[in-house]
Design brief:
By secondary structure, the chain is an alpha/beta fold. 47% of the residues lie in helices and 12% in strands. It contains 9 helices and 7 strands.
Length: 274
């Protein structure tokens, strides 16, 4: 399989989990991979397995992003594929929110079944700190913009390329415990469509993947929330990283040469659209 033969592909957040899986699939399809991550040790280990390159990058820091892309331009002089994958879920240090969501969900179900009314409420937005909001937007949305802007300084010179942005089903449905994450992902989908229209004349395709709930390190902290999600998913399970990685391979390849401004959403039926 050589669908990405001789392509140069950069994956942010590529040290582990979904990003590492995408990098592996790209490598298997013949691409030369560049792993960018805030954890440079893990990034280097992943890159070594794939005969690739690793760079420290904080996607929320414009200077950090610019520095890496300058190095890439000097070393490779071109870039074919960018995957904006770096992100956080916002629960890494907030197990209390997950516990509270389970508690309130159970209370609401009990109240509604007994009285037909809901008296308990899950208050996330009113209790969210400035730091939580800004950090989420900075990593997901600003990071996607910073990396796309710098990648285009290389891709525009060859009038060809594929940019893949990582969205989420929560960017469409909203998440009751993650307004900041949902807002960032919704904005990324809008950014994807806008840049796809802008760059079509340059033959640079921009698409998004909006995964449903996938078994990764990012979702491992969800605990009993997983039960709620699975019950609301027609296929009654979480997806696997390979489900997303194959979508990325397709969008990066010539098989998707007439696809731009689109969102692929492997989600087990959690969200269905026309």
């Amino acid at each position: 399989m050589n669908r990405l033969k001789n392509k140069i592909a950069l994956i942010t957040g590529g040290a582990k989990g979904l990003g590492a899986s995408i990098a592996q699939h790209f490598f298997n399809e013949g691409a030369e991979v560049i792993i960018c991550d805030i954890n440079i040790d893990k990034a280097q280990k992943t890159a070594n397995k794939l005969n690739g390159n690793a760079y420290y990058m904080d996607v929320s820091n414009s200077s950090s992003v610019q520095d890496v892309f300058r190095k890439i331009k000097t070393k490779f002089n071109h870039l074919d594929i960018l995957v904006n994958n770096a992100g956080i879920n916002g629960f890494e240090k907030r197990q209390d929110l997950l516990d509270e969501r389970i508690k309130i969900n159970n209370q609401q179900s009990k109240e509604f079944s007994e009285t037909g009314k809901i008296e308990s409420h899950f208050d996330v937005t009113v209790n969210m700190s400035d730091e939580e909001w800004v950090t989420m937007i900075s990593i997901h949305l600003n990071g996607t913009f910073f990396c796309t802007r710098e990648a285009l300084k290389i891709m525009n010179n060859i009038n060809k390329g594929s940019i893949i942005n990582m969205g989420s089903v929560l960017g469409t449905t909203g998440g009751p415990s993650s307004p900041h994450y949902s807002a960032a992902k919704a904005a990324i989908l809008g950014f994807t469509r806008a840049t796809a229209r802008e760059l079509a004349s340059r033959n640079i395709r921009v698409n998004a993947i909006a995964p449903g709930y996938i078994d990764t390190d990012m979702t491992s902290s969800l605990g009993d929330v997983k039960k709620i999600v699975k019950s609301g998913t027609p296929m009654k399970k979480f997806g696997e990283v390979e489900d997303i990685s194959w979508a990325a391979v397709y969008l990066a390849s010539e098989e998707a040469k007439f696809v731009t401004g689109q969102t692929l959403s492997p989600n087990g039926g959690f969200v269905m659209s026309q």
